[in-house]
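Researcher: Quick test of sequence recovery. Tokens follow.
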């Protein structure tokens, strides 16, 4: 009988010890009370709870947590009632303060968030509220972080998820946005037509400039061509005259070398006179030697007979 009692007591002690050995997981914390008072906070690892003396008061997660609050009615400075729902990202930094600082931390944060949101939005007009999400988020995070610090909590982020104005305000905003889009469309269309007209005008201008340049170059080339032709004609005439003069000089030289008589020289003068008479001159001066036709005829006859 005594052995059975001892065995039962041994089993009871084993069970009691087993149930009072606690393993704390990572990113968790256990708050321990001894005889109703706070004793310590257990972090990750194995711990032993003294039976009938120590008590596990609260299990706390140290991970970042998210709370999505339902939409809250707020009134703007210009008396527009809107529905705004927010999201809070927080983390427990002190398990003891979180356990004993406030009775219901989540409910306290929700009420504090609603009050802070009403205070901030109450100083803004509707248009400012819709375009100042970052400013509102920053102000709310700062206020909530300071308020929850005695509760062992840290507010990491605050985000406004939705801002819902009344239906009539939304309709007016949609009409305004539609009018703005139509205005921008008209401006863009006008700018496009303006740019098109400018490009067409510039194209015509460039075309006229190129046409004028082409005509100028053509006129220059024609003038240069005519100039070259004139120069070549003048050079040809000069060369012809030079050739004639050289031929005449050669003839005179040959006459001198042949010791031509007076009659031969007179005949050459007569040939030259004939060439002159065939030209465009309107006045001809006859040398005194040729004025006496009888003498000239006699000389010519004598010269002819000698040659025959």
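Model:
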């Amino acid at each position: 009988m005594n052995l059975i009692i001892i065995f039962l007591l041994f089993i009871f002690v084993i069970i009691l010890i087993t149930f009072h050995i606690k393993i704390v997981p990572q990113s968790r914390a256990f708050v321990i009370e001894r005889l109703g008072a706070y004793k310590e906070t257990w972090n990750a690892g194995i711990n032993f709870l003294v039976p009938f003396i120590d008590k596990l008061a609260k299990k706390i997660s140290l991970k970042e947590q998210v709370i999505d609050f339902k939409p809250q009615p707020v009134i703007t400075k210009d008396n527009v009632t809107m529905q705004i729902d927010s999201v809070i990202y927080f983390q427990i930094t002190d398990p003891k303060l979180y356990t004993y600082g406030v009775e219901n931390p989540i409910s306290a944060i929700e009420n504090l968030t609603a009050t802070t949101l009403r205070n901030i939005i109450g100083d803004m007009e509707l248009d400012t509220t819709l375009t100042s999400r970052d400013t509102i988020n920053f102000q709310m995070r700062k206020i909530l972080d300071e308020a929850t610090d005695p509760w062992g909590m840290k507010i990491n982020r605050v985000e406004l998820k939705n801002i819902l104005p009344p239906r009539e305000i939304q309709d007016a905003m949609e009409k305004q946005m539609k009018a703005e889009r139509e205005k921008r469309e008209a401006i863009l269309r006008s700018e496009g037509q303006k740019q098109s007209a400018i490009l067409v005008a510039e194209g015509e201008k460039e075309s006229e400039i190129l046409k004028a340049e082409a005509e100028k170059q053509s006129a220059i080339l024609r003038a240069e061509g005519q100039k070259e032709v004139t120069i070549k004609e003048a050079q040809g005439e000069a060369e012809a005259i030079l050739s004639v003069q050289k031929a005449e000089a050669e003839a005179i030289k040959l006459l001198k070398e042949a010791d031509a008589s007076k009659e031969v020289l007179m005949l050459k003068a007569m040939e030259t006179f004939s060439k002159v008479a065939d030209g465009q001159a309107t006045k001809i001066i006859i040398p005194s030697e040729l004025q006496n036709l009888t003498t000239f005829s006699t000389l010519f006859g004598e010269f002819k007979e000698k040659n025959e």
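Strands lie at 21-24, 28-34, 37-42, 45-48, 54-61, 65-68, 72-75, 81-92, 153-164.
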